[in-house]
Amino acid sequence: MANLNLIIRPLRQGVSASNPCEIHVLVRVQAPERPADQNQVHTPLHLAVVLDRSGSMSGRPLLEACRCASAIAARLVAEDQLAVIAYDNRVTVLRPCLPVTDLSALQHRIQSLHSGGTTNLHGGWAAGVEALRKAHRPDVISRVLLLSDGAANEGITDPETLSTAARAAAGEGISTSTYGLGKEFEERLMTSMAKSGAGRSYYGDLAEDLMDPFGEEFDLLSNLVARKLTISWETPKGWTLTQVNGYALSAPGQWSLPDLAYQSEAWALFRLQGLNSSLPGEESDLGRIKVAWQDTQGNALQSLSRSFTLPTVTEEAFGSLPKEPMVANRISELRIGELQELAHLAAYANDWDLVRIYLDEMKALAADHPWSKGVVAELSALMKNREFGSLRKEFLYQSVSSTSRLTDIEENLLDPFGTSYTRRKPRQGKALPPDPKPPKDKP
Predict the structure, then answer these.
(1) What is the pLDDT of residues 6-42, one digit of tens each?
(2) For residue 211, what is the enclosing H or E element?
């Protein structure tokens, strides 16, 4: 059982005695470094790779998708299992969920796939879920990896129905991650299925960009230490609580955080608003924060809890308190993420004047935030070059990344490289270049 670390940081180290009050608080949940002991328990991975082979995948897209599936198969160990599903208007189970003991033969069969008809996305996804359901146990990580380059136009196509189905599967312990390719896939459907399905959403502008997110996903699943991570906050009477990231509720007053991997941090920003009854010099009781999680072996939930207080100060003293830089950066990042989602909706409506207004506000917020500044520069370049298909997708995927990403334990805003699952990408649809090797010491 991994020991997690809970850190609570307010924007300012105090509460104003004037009313009403507003307090921003960053809650960080940190995982330990990966143990050096090579005999540590490996949590088996049960993966179902679900490949779109519809007519639009002809040529390089299907070749690259098959290359990703083959690479995943090659990285599995003896305790892991893999199912492979191909779909167009028909659904073909290339293999059920089994250990990979026939790697060469499996890779040959994957690489022999041909493109065909329309896109029965639900049928392919459901076959992947069923393959995993037959082999699922509480002590394994079961996840569908769903790839598509187009619109669901066969079978069940309603986005809400598909997202509801992904949520139900996640309730059984079978999560869903989605991979979109190109400019024609339905990004709102794919991100919604991943969010509802307790997985991650990725996309590639080009087929050759797909290997990067597939590798990131595999690294994440191989390094998980905490699943079903939740956070709750019992606030005193008179205070209201807002969860700023927009995480989904898993129960009343309890939010689901991303699964946590070694050397990473899940975080949540809260806004407290209310009436402070304490006087200057007194401690203000702001309630109790609790995080709970399940280990990767399916054991019972573990938890940490902390009471949270801040000193009450005069209104004048409060105004002079310094802001915590990390909290201020996360507030800006979440506002930029909100603007990216709004810009996505405006772009979908072809309201480019409104898109420009949102971009201008993003630029102002990102001025002192190196990573966000790079992201906004990429978005502005897409706007300038009139690459509207990529721009719509970047707005949405950057918004998802801004609001729910894992970070390094000690995040360096000037360095985008960390573990593959915590690095910050200026373009979600492009593979990030390899981390440059550090210079060798001179003799």
Answers:
(1) 999 999 999 999 888 999 999 999 999 888 765 567 8
(2) helix 211-222
